[in-house]
Amino acid sequence: MSDSFLDGNLVYLRLPDIERDVVNGDWYRWFNSDEITKYLYHGVYPNSLERQIEIVKSNLERGDTVLLSVIDRESEKLCGVVSLKDIDLINRVAEVTIVMSRGDYVKNAPLEALALITQYGFEKLNLAKINGGHHIGLWRWVNKVELLGYRLEGYIRDTHRRYGRVFDSVRVGVRADDYFRIVEERGGEYLPDDIEGLLADRREENICERLGSLIEELYR
Fold first, then answer.
1. pTM above 0.85, yes or no
2. What pLDDT, on a 0 to 100 scale, did the predictor assign at position 95?
3. Which backbone phi and psi does 105 adopt, to 5 degrees?
4. 3-class DSSP string for the chain
5. Percentage of the chain lying above the pLDDT 90 cut
6. What strands, in cross-sheet order, belong to the sheet with 11-14?
7. Closest Cα partner for 25 from 111, 102, 82, 97?
8. What is the pLDDT of residues 156-206, one digit of tens each?
9. From its phi and psi, is residue 109 left (phi > 0), alpha (psi between -120 and 50) or beta?
10. CATH number at residue 66
């Protein structure tokens, strides 16, 4: 019997298995990789197997966090982790996070993983809003998640200092009303089977940079 919790066409999400995913996997090495952590807060200090086990155990014990492993259906390998954190069932909000491995996964796996955890948040946890944050270097990803209803909601200056430079970040969010509207408009599908067709409609403009410029102009 599959231990899948949330099923997609490209990936499925399940509870992390410390033995399979951490001890016998390379999960902890992701956070030592400059390629993977380039746009994250991770990667400043070295990570270890023991430390990763502690982090995963701690997150699994938290009542305000749902942490799931992203499994590539084709290879049955762990290719990422996704979570809803700081779940507030009074105000019905949560923070979404996603980290993927070095790219050895099926195309569009990150978008489907995000769609699955977002769908779970609205349809099972009855959330009203899901928020997230991104380094401005991930503006192409921001354009992709807009297709899932995630809109730019804020621009924060000087959040990342690395490589001798200072970088900004953006806040995004999707409301339950927008989620259910998208599902209705797409005939009951949140993320259509034809992902490439959907992506053909994404913006090409760097809207993160545009938002930053608009805010700078506002205070001149």
1. yes
2. 99
3. -145, 165
4. CCCCCEECCCEEEECCCHHHHHHCCCHHHHCCCHHHHCCCCCCCCCCCHHHHHHHHHHHHHCCCCEEEEEEECCCCCEEEEEEEEEEECCCCEEEEEEEECCCCCCCCHHHHHHHHHHHHHHHCCCCCEEEEEEEHHHHHHHHHHHHHCCEEEEEEEEEEEECCEEEEEEEEEEEHHHHHHHHHHCCCCCCCCCHHHHHCCCCCCCHHHHHHHHHHHHCC
5. 94
6. 6-7, 11-14, 66-72, 78-88, 93-100, 129-135, 165-175, 151-162
7. 102
8. 999 999 999 999 999 999 999 999 999 999 999 999 999 999 999 999 999
9. alpha
10. 3.40.630.30
pLDDT, tens digit (0-9, with 9 covering 90-100), for 30-74:
999 999 999 999 989 999 999 999 999 999 999 999 999 999 999
Which residue range is the domain that position 180 belongs to? 6-218
**Number of domains comprising the chain:** 1
Domain contains 144: yes
Backbone angles phi, psi at 162, to 5 degrees: -160, 150
Name the one residue in this structure whose structure tokens are 């902890």.
28
